[in-house]
Specification:
The chain is an all-beta fold. It contains no helices and 28 strands.
Length: 323
């Protein structure tokens, strides 16, 4: 059954989406299922992160290839003015880094994976300068999550098949955790106790205990998972594959509870504030699938264009006048 998303005050807002094939950032009304604005950025931006005040979107410009493949090596971060809906600035990182995932730290800094530097760069949004570099000790540090208390960051190192644990206060590497031959993407539970990453050669998800920095469990899945995101209550893990399937894992039993057919080329998952809906980007199909997290039914998708990838949320009424 298809039905519209009902957005309460907590969950009202817009989707901000990076389209890596069209080299754009899209501002999308998820309830009206329509594109409101399109801003051209560099080649290619895969991810996007909205500033806390809702004024800007930061788009690391990765390059025109995939992880570990030859191609252009991005060295910039584009800054999009979400009020004016135009490119506001381009931050030069000073060298080819293939910057990818960005996350806000509790110190107000923007932490960005620097894949070719085997590091996470720390960006001051006020000066738009890199102020520090935290080594990951591994190649292809592609995706990043930060613990709820802001003390630790965790990177998924694709070709190294590992997870790096970083101390954000000391800006240092704590340890690296071997996982598999190759991993993709990473997520963290709302309480910060578990980190999830995905074996690309076997159908299983690694569950890392953040107290010990060791793999505590494996979750068996029907086919290899590409990305995951826990629900806000920490009970479920929403996952997607690249071959048009999504699995919902019960994190109490560590078993797959629901299997869904989604759009082709799934890439990223965003849980809408309020915890009622998950958005799943279908990069190949050019659609954003909409999953009701109460009924586990797919609603009418948001029809966009092929290349839709990373997503972030712009809350309704976000102050667009202060830095």
């Amino acid at each position: 059954m298809l039905r519209n998303v009902k957005a309460g005050p907590e969950g009202s807002g817009l989707l901000v989406i990076a389209n890596q094939k069209e080299h754009t950032v899209l501002v999308v009304d998820p309830d009206g299922r329509r594109e409101l604005a399109r801003v051209v950025v560099g080649v290619n931006g895969h991810e996007v992160m909205v500033s806390k005040d809702g004024r800007f979107a930061y788009v690391p410009i990765y390059g025109n290839s995939g992880v570990g493949r030859p191609g252009t090596d991005g060295s910039t971060i584009d800054v999009v003015d979400l009020q004016g809906r135009k490119l506001a600035a381009t931050i030069d990182l000073g060298k080819p880094l293939r910057p990818h995932r960005a996350e806000w730290g509790p110190d107000g800094m923007l932490y960005v994976t620097a894949e070719l530097g085997n590091a996470v760069d720390v960006l001051d949004p006020a000066t738009r300068k890199i102020v520090a570099e935290i080594p990951t000790g591994q190649k292809e540090s592609h995706m990043l999550v930060i613990s709820p208390d802001g003390r630790r960051a965790y990177t998924a190192n694709v070709g190294a098949g590992s997870v790096s644990v970083l101390d954000l206060a000391k800006r240092s590497l704590v340890t690296t955790i071997p996982v598999a031959k190759m991993v993709q993407r990473i997520s963290i539970s709302p309480d910060g106790k578990r980190v999830f990453t995905h074996d690309q050669d076997a159908p299983r998800i690694a569950v890392i205990d953040t107290a010990t920095n060791k793999i505590a469990n494996w979750i068996e899945v029907p086919s290899s998972v590409y990305a995951s995101e826990p629900t806000t209550d920490g009970r479920w893990l929403v996952t997607l594959t690249r071959n048009a399937a999504a699995y919902v894992v019960d994190l109490q039993s560590m078993k797959v509870a629901h299997t869904l057919k989604i759009s082709d080329g799934g890439s990223e998952i965003l849980i809408r504030p309020g915890g009622d809906v998950a958005y799943l980007s279908g990069t190949g199909a050019g659609k954003i699938d909409v999953l009701d997290l109460h009924t586990w039914e797919l609603q009418k998708p948001i029809e966009l264009t092929p290349g839709v990838d990373g997503m972030d949320w712009l809350p309704a009424g976000a102050n667009a006048t202060r830095q």
